[in-house]
Amino acid sequence: MSSTEPFEKRRTALDALHRALGATMTDFAGWDMPLRYGSERDEHLAVRTRAGLFDLSHMGEITVTGPQAAALLDHALVGNLGSLKVGRARYTMICQADGGILDDLIVYRLAETEAGSSHYMVVANASNAQVVLDALTERSSGFDAEVRDDRDAYALIAVQGPRSPGILKSLTDADLDGLKYYAGLPGTVAGVPALIARTGYTGEDGFELFVRPEHAVELWQALSKAGEGDGLVPCGLSCRDTLRLEAGMPLYGHELNTSLTPFDAGLGRVVKFDKEGDFVGRAALVQAAERAGQNPPRVLVGLVAEGRRVPRAGYAVVAGGEVIGEVTSGAPSPTLGKPIAMAYVDAAHSAPGTPGVGVDIRGSHEPYEVVALPFYKRQK
Q1: Facing residues of 361 across strands?
Q2: pTM to 2 decimals?
Protein backbone atom coordinates (compact mmCIF):
# COMPACT_ATOMS: atom_id res chain seq x y z
CA MET A 1 0.00 0.00 0.00
CA SER A 2 1.49 3.37 -0.96
CA SER A 3 0.95 6.59 0.95
CA THR A 4 -0.95 8.05 -2.04
CA GLU A 5 -3.79 5.53 -1.89
CA PRO A 6 -6.95 6.75 -0.15
CA PHE A 7 -6.88 4.17 2.64
CA GLU A 8 -6.69 4.57 6.35
CA LYS A 9 -3.12 4.30 7.55
CA ARG A 10 -2.05 0.89 8.80
CA ARG A 11 -0.92 0.57 12.39
CA THR A 12 1.62 -1.89 13.77
CA ALA A 13 0.97 -4.14 16.75
CA LEU A 14 3.04 -1.69 18.83
CA ASP A 15 0.99 1.40 17.92
CA ALA A 16 -0.61 1.99 21.35
CA LEU A 17 2.75 1.50 23.04
CA HIS A 18 4.42 4.13 20.80
CA ARG A 19 1.69 6.63 21.66
CA ALA A 20 2.01 5.87 25.37
CA LEU A 21 5.75 6.63 25.04
CA GLY A 22 4.90 10.02 23.52
CA ALA A 23 6.15 9.26 20.03
CA THR A 24 5.70 11.76 17.22
CA MET A 25 3.99 9.68 14.55
CA THR A 26 4.32 10.04 10.79
CA ASP A 27 2.87 8.51 7.63
CA PHE A 28 5.41 6.20 6.02
CA ALA A 29 4.38 4.14 3.00
CA GLY A 30 0.79 4.00 4.25
CA TRP A 31 1.78 3.08 7.82
CA ASP A 32 1.53 5.23 10.94
CA MET A 33 5.07 4.97 12.31
CA PRO A 34 7.07 6.60 15.12
CA LEU A 35 9.29 9.37 13.75
CA ARG A 36 10.94 10.13 17.09
CA TYR A 37 10.22 9.78 20.81
CA GLY A 38 12.32 12.71 21.98
CA SER A 39 15.53 14.06 20.50
CA GLU A 40 16.54 12.57 17.14
CA ARG A 41 20.17 13.34 17.95
CA ASP A 42 19.98 11.56 21.32
CA GLU A 43 18.34 8.50 19.73
CA HIS A 44 21.01 8.44 17.02
CA LEU A 45 23.91 8.68 19.48
CA ALA A 46 22.33 6.01 21.72
CA VAL A 47 22.52 3.54 18.80
CA ARG A 48 26.12 4.53 18.02
CA THR A 49 27.33 4.23 21.63
CA ARG A 50 24.81 2.02 23.48
CA ALA A 51 21.62 0.55 21.98
CA GLY A 52 18.32 1.51 20.39
CA LEU A 53 15.01 -0.28 19.90
CA PHE A 54 13.06 0.06 16.64
CA ASP A 55 9.64 -1.02 15.40
CA LEU A 56 10.11 -2.11 11.77
CA SER A 57 6.81 -3.93 11.39
CA HIS A 58 6.06 -1.96 8.21
CA MET A 59 8.59 -4.02 6.25
CA GLY A 60 7.11 -6.48 3.77
CA GLU A 61 7.69 -10.20 4.36
CA ILE A 62 7.04 -12.56 1.44
CA THR A 63 7.46 -16.32 1.83
CA VAL A 64 8.62 -18.45 -1.11
CA THR A 65 8.43 -22.22 -0.70
CA GLY A 66 8.52 -25.36 -2.82
CA PRO A 67 10.85 -27.70 -4.70
CA GLN A 68 11.72 -24.92 -7.18
CA ALA A 69 11.77 -21.99 -4.75
CA ALA A 70 15.51 -21.50 -5.29
CA ALA A 71 15.14 -21.66 -9.08
CA LEU A 72 12.30 -19.15 -8.97
CA LEU A 73 14.32 -16.67 -6.89
CA ASP A 74 17.37 -17.11 -9.13
CA HIS A 75 15.14 -16.27 -12.11
CA ALA A 76 13.27 -13.39 -10.42
CA LEU A 77 16.16 -11.68 -8.60
CA VAL A 78 19.65 -10.62 -9.68
CA GLY A 79 21.48 -12.57 -6.94
CA ASN A 80 22.39 -16.23 -6.59
CA LEU A 81 19.90 -17.42 -3.98
CA GLY A 82 20.27 -21.09 -4.83
CA SER A 83 23.78 -20.99 -3.33
CA LEU A 84 22.54 -19.44 -0.08
CA LYS A 85 22.96 -21.84 2.84
CA VAL A 86 20.12 -22.54 5.28
CA GLY A 87 20.32 -20.05 8.14
CA ARG A 88 22.00 -17.33 6.07
CA ALA A 89 20.72 -14.11 4.53
CA ARG A 90 21.74 -12.17 1.42
CA TYR A 91 21.32 -8.58 0.25
CA THR A 92 20.02 -8.53 -3.32
CA MET A 93 17.74 -6.69 -5.73
CA ILE A 94 14.76 -7.29 -7.97
CA CYS A 95 14.97 -5.52 -11.31
CA GLN A 96 12.76 -4.78 -14.28
CA ALA A 97 13.49 -6.30 -17.68
CA ASP A 98 15.31 -3.04 -18.56
CA GLY A 99 17.57 -3.42 -15.52
CA GLY A 100 15.89 -0.68 -13.47
CA ILE A 101 15.74 -1.42 -9.72
CA LEU A 102 12.28 -2.33 -8.43
CA ASP A 103 13.54 -2.78 -4.86
CA ASP A 104 16.49 -3.85 -2.77
CA LEU A 105 15.82 -6.88 -0.59
CA ILE A 106 17.14 -9.15 2.10
CA VAL A 107 16.45 -12.83 1.45
CA TYR A 108 16.70 -15.46 4.20
CA ARG A 109 16.93 -19.21 3.49
CA LEU A 110 15.09 -20.59 6.49
CA ALA A 111 14.74 -24.33 5.89
CA GLU A 112 15.14 -27.30 3.58
CA THR A 113 12.95 -30.39 3.85
CA GLU A 114 14.07 -33.97 3.23
CA ALA A 115 11.76 -33.97 0.24
CA GLY A 116 13.82 -31.15 -1.29
CA SER A 117 11.44 -28.25 -0.69
CA SER A 118 13.09 -24.93 0.21
CA HIS A 119 11.71 -22.20 2.49
CA TYR A 120 12.81 -18.62 1.87
CA MET A 121 11.68 -15.30 3.32
CA VAL A 122 12.03 -12.20 1.15
CA VAL A 123 11.95 -8.88 3.03
CA ALA A 124 10.96 -5.90 0.89
CA ASN A 125 10.78 -2.20 1.67
CA ALA A 126 7.38 -1.09 2.94
CA SER A 127 6.81 1.24 -0.02
CA ASN A 128 7.54 -1.55 -2.52
CA ALA A 129 6.13 -4.62 -0.78
CA GLN A 130 3.11 -4.93 -3.07
CA VAL A 131 5.21 -4.30 -6.20
CA VAL A 132 7.67 -7.02 -5.15
CA LEU A 133 4.86 -9.43 -4.24
CA ASP A 134 3.18 -8.87 -7.62
CA ALA A 135 6.46 -9.29 -9.52
CA LEU A 136 7.40 -12.50 -7.69
CA THR A 137 3.91 -13.90 -8.21
CA GLU A 138 4.03 -13.12 -11.92
CA ARG A 139 7.56 -14.52 -12.30
CA SER A 140 6.62 -17.72 -10.47
CA SER A 141 4.66 -18.94 -13.48
CA GLY A 142 6.04 -22.31 -14.59
CA PHE A 143 7.92 -22.93 -11.33
CA ASP A 144 6.90 -25.50 -8.73
CA ALA A 145 6.93 -22.89 -5.97
CA GLU A 146 4.45 -20.86 -3.93
CA VAL A 147 4.70 -17.12 -3.28
CA ARG A 148 2.79 -16.05 -0.17
CA ASP A 149 2.09 -12.60 1.26
CA ASP A 150 3.14 -12.86 4.92
CA ARG A 151 3.10 -9.15 5.79
CA ASP A 152 0.39 -9.69 8.42
CA ALA A 153 2.12 -12.76 9.89
CA TYR A 154 5.07 -10.84 11.34
CA ALA A 155 5.96 -7.95 13.58
CA LEU A 156 9.60 -6.88 13.32
CA ILE A 157 11.57 -5.40 16.21
CA ALA A 158 15.21 -4.38 15.88
CA VAL A 159 17.73 -3.87 18.67
CA GLN A 160 20.80 -2.10 17.32
CA GLY A 161 24.04 -0.81 18.79
CA PRO A 162 27.24 -2.04 20.48
CA ARG A 163 25.40 -3.16 23.62
CA SER A 164 22.66 -5.04 21.74
CA PRO A 165 24.35 -8.48 21.95
CA GLY A 166 24.56 -8.29 25.74
CA ILE A 167 20.97 -7.13 26.07
CA LEU A 168 19.67 -9.91 23.82
CA LYS A 169 21.85 -12.57 25.49
CA SER A 170 20.09 -11.87 28.79
CA LEU A 171 16.76 -12.89 27.20
CA THR A 172 17.66 -15.90 25.06
CA ASP A 173 19.67 -19.11 25.14
CA ALA A 174 20.20 -18.95 21.37
CA ASP A 175 23.86 -19.05 20.32
CA LEU A 176 24.36 -15.37 19.50
CA ASP A 177 28.16 -15.69 19.54
CA GLY A 178 27.92 -18.21 16.71
CA LEU A 179 25.41 -16.09 14.76
CA LYS A 180 27.29 -14.39 11.95
CA TYR A 181 26.41 -11.10 10.26
CA TYR A 182 23.68 -11.75 7.68
CA ALA A 183 22.54 -14.96 9.32
CA GLY A 184 19.37 -15.94 11.16
CA LEU A 185 18.27 -18.72 13.46
CA PRO A 186 14.99 -19.68 15.12
CA GLY A 187 14.99 -19.20 18.87
CA THR A 188 13.08 -17.93 21.85
CA VAL A 189 13.53 -14.38 23.16
CA ALA A 190 11.89 -13.58 26.52
CA GLY A 191 9.72 -16.66 26.02
CA VAL A 192 8.58 -15.49 22.58
CA PRO A 193 9.31 -17.64 19.47
CA ALA A 194 11.34 -15.55 17.04
CA LEU A 195 13.54 -15.61 13.98
CA ILE A 196 16.69 -13.95 15.30
CA ALA A 197 18.59 -12.27 12.44
CA ARG A 198 21.94 -10.49 12.76
CA THR A 199 21.03 -7.79 10.28
CA GLY A 200 20.28 -4.10 10.45
CA TYR A 201 20.27 -0.72 8.75
CA THR A 202 22.31 1.39 11.15
CA GLY A 203 25.96 0.55 10.55
CA GLU A 204 26.15 -1.03 14.02
CA ASP A 205 26.03 -4.59 15.27
CA GLY A 206 22.48 -5.59 16.05
CA PHE A 207 19.58 -7.92 15.57
CA GLU A 208 16.20 -7.98 13.85
CA LEU A 209 13.57 -10.14 15.55
CA PHE A 210 10.68 -11.48 13.47
CA VAL A 211 7.77 -12.50 15.74
CA ARG A 212 4.04 -12.97 15.55
CA PRO A 213 2.20 -9.63 15.95
CA GLU A 214 0.44 -10.81 19.14
CA HIS A 215 3.87 -11.23 20.80
CA ALA A 216 5.25 -7.82 19.80
CA VAL A 217 4.27 -5.80 22.88
CA GLU A 218 5.53 -8.49 25.27
CA LEU A 219 8.88 -8.67 23.46
CA TRP A 220 9.31 -4.88 23.22
CA GLN A 221 8.67 -4.50 26.94
CA ALA A 222 11.08 -7.32 27.82
CA LEU A 223 13.83 -5.78 25.67
CA SER A 224 13.19 -2.33 27.16
CA LYS A 225 13.49 -3.70 30.68
CA ALA A 226 16.59 -5.78 29.88
CA GLY A 227 18.28 -2.73 28.33
CA GLU A 228 17.58 -0.25 31.11
CA GLY A 229 21.05 -0.59 32.63
CA ASP A 230 22.69 -0.32 29.20
CA GLY A 231 21.04 2.94 28.15
CA LEU A 232 18.72 1.35 25.57
CA VAL A 233 16.19 3.87 24.21
CA PRO A 234 13.25 3.58 21.80
CA CYS A 235 14.18 5.01 18.39
CA GLY A 236 12.09 6.34 15.50
CA LEU A 237 12.46 6.42 11.73
CA SER A 238 14.21 9.81 11.78
CA CYS A 239 17.37 8.53 13.49
CA ARG A 240 17.18 5.32 11.44
CA ASP A 241 17.59 7.57 8.40
CA THR A 242 20.61 9.48 9.74
CA LEU A 243 22.22 6.25 10.94
CA ARG A 244 21.91 4.57 7.54
CA LEU A 245 23.08 7.76 5.80
CA GLU A 246 26.27 7.88 7.88
CA ALA A 247 26.81 4.19 7.08
CA GLY A 248 26.45 4.91 3.34
CA MET A 249 23.45 2.57 3.00
CA PRO A 250 21.09 3.31 0.09
CA LEU A 251 17.41 4.10 0.58
CA TYR A 252 14.91 3.14 -2.09
CA GLY A 253 13.36 6.25 -3.66
CA HIS A 254 16.55 8.20 -2.96
CA GLU A 255 19.71 6.35 -4.04
CA LEU A 256 17.77 3.56 -5.80
CA ASN A 257 14.86 3.72 -8.29
CA THR A 258 13.59 2.22 -11.53
CA SER A 259 15.64 4.65 -13.66
CA LEU A 260 18.88 3.28 -12.18
CA THR A 261 20.47 -0.17 -12.54
CA PRO A 262 22.51 -1.75 -9.71
CA PHE A 263 25.63 -0.74 -11.67
CA ASP A 264 24.53 2.91 -11.82
CA ALA A 265 24.14 2.79 -8.04
CA GLY A 266 27.64 1.37 -7.52
CA LEU A 267 26.12 -1.92 -6.36
CA GLY A 268 26.86 -4.08 -9.36
CA ARG A 269 28.41 -6.66 -7.02
CA VAL A 270 24.90 -7.92 -6.17
CA VAL A 271 24.32 -9.00 -9.79
CA LYS A 272 25.49 -12.59 -10.34
CA PHE A 273 25.91 -13.34 -14.04
CA ASP A 274 27.56 -16.68 -13.31
CA LYS A 275 24.48 -18.35 -11.82
CA GLU A 276 22.60 -21.02 -13.74
CA GLY A 277 19.82 -20.05 -16.10
CA ASP A 278 18.47 -16.73 -17.28
CA PHE A 279 17.10 -14.06 -14.97
CA VAL A 280 14.86 -11.03 -15.43
CA GLY A 281 16.92 -8.06 -16.62
CA ARG A 282 20.05 -10.06 -17.48
CA ALA A 283 20.60 -8.74 -21.01
CA ALA A 284 20.07 -5.12 -19.97
CA LEU A 285 22.36 -5.55 -16.96
CA VAL A 286 25.18 -6.99 -19.10
CA GLN A 287 25.06 -3.74 -21.10
CA ALA A 288 24.84 -1.66 -17.91
CA ALA A 289 27.94 -3.42 -16.54
CA GLU A 290 29.86 -2.60 -19.73
CA ARG A 291 28.79 1.07 -19.59
CA ALA A 292 29.76 1.33 -15.92
CA GLY A 293 33.18 -0.19 -16.61
CA GLN A 294 33.94 2.12 -19.51
CA ASN A 295 32.34 5.46 -18.73
CA PRO A 296 29.96 5.63 -15.75
CA PRO A 297 27.43 8.43 -16.30
CA ARG A 298 27.35 9.43 -12.66
CA VAL A 299 28.89 8.06 -9.47
CA LEU A 300 27.41 7.95 -5.96
CA VAL A 301 29.65 9.91 -3.57
CA GLY A 302 29.62 11.35 -0.09
CA LEU A 303 29.60 15.10 0.55
CA VAL A 304 30.59 16.75 3.84
CA ALA A 305 29.63 20.37 4.45
CA GLU A 306 32.22 23.01 5.25
CA GLY A 307 29.43 25.19 6.67
CA ARG A 308 26.24 24.53 8.63
CA ARG A 309 23.57 24.52 5.94
CA VAL A 310 21.90 21.14 5.38
CA PRO A 311 21.48 19.73 1.85
CA ARG A 312 18.26 17.93 0.97
CA ALA A 313 17.28 15.39 -1.68
CA GLY A 314 16.90 17.02 -5.09
CA TYR A 315 19.34 19.89 -4.49
CA ALA A 316 21.80 20.47 -7.34
CA VAL A 317 25.50 19.69 -6.91
CA VAL A 318 27.59 22.31 -8.69
CA ALA A 319 31.17 22.99 -9.77
CA GLY A 320 32.51 25.89 -11.81
CA GLY A 321 29.02 27.30 -12.22
CA GLU A 322 27.75 24.08 -13.81
CA VAL A 323 25.34 21.49 -12.41
CA ILE A 324 27.33 18.26 -12.05
CA GLY A 325 24.93 16.15 -10.02
CA GLU A 326 22.07 15.87 -7.55
CA VAL A 327 21.77 15.21 -3.83
CA THR A 328 19.84 12.00 -3.07
CA SER A 329 19.89 12.15 0.77
CA GLY A 330 21.08 14.83 3.16
CA ALA A 331 20.93 15.47 6.90
CA PRO A 332 22.94 16.77 9.84
CA SER A 333 25.35 14.03 10.98
CA PRO A 334 25.32 13.66 14.78
CA THR A 335 28.50 11.56 14.63
CA LEU A 336 30.51 13.93 12.41
CA GLY A 337 28.93 17.11 13.78
CA LYS A 338 28.44 18.44 10.23
CA PRO A 339 25.79 18.22 7.51
CA ILE A 340 26.40 15.33 5.10
CA ALA A 341 24.84 14.07 1.87
CA MET A 342 24.94 11.31 -0.67
CA ALA A 343 24.79 12.49 -4.27
CA TYR A 344 25.16 11.24 -7.82
CA VAL A 345 27.81 13.39 -9.52
CA ASP A 346 29.55 13.33 -12.90
CA ALA A 347 32.46 10.88 -12.82
CA ALA A 348 34.97 13.70 -13.47
CA HIS A 349 34.08 15.21 -10.08
CA SER A 350 33.71 11.98 -8.09
CA ALA A 351 37.22 11.50 -6.70
CA PRO A 352 37.59 12.20 -2.96
CA GLY A 353 39.02 15.68 -2.44
CA THR A 354 37.88 17.00 -5.84
CA PRO A 355 38.14 20.81 -5.46
CA GLY A 356 35.42 23.38 -6.14
CA VAL A 357 32.35 21.22 -5.45
CA GLY A 358 29.31 22.74 -3.80
CA VAL A 359 25.59 22.31 -3.28
CA ASP A 360 23.05 24.88 -4.46
CA ILE A 361 21.03 25.59 -1.32
CA ARG A 362 18.32 28.09 -2.25
CA GLY A 363 20.54 29.96 -4.68
CA SER A 364 23.69 29.92 -2.55
CA HIS A 365 26.52 27.62 -3.59
CA GLU A 366 27.68 26.12 -0.30
CA PRO A 367 31.13 24.42 -0.35
CA TYR A 368 31.27 20.65 0.21
CA GLU A 369 34.09 18.14 0.37
CA VAL A 370 33.76 15.02 -1.81
CA VAL A 371 34.52 11.91 0.30
CA ALA A 372 34.38 8.16 -0.19
CA LEU A 373 31.42 6.32 1.31
CA PRO A 374 30.64 5.39 4.02
CA PHE A 375 31.00 8.43 6.26
CA TYR A 376 31.10 6.16 9.31
CA LYS A 377 32.35 2.61 9.84
CA ARG A 378 32.16 0.93 13.22
CA GLN A 379 35.27 -0.46 14.86
CA LYS A 380 34.91 -4.27 15.00
Answers
A1: 364
A2: 0.96
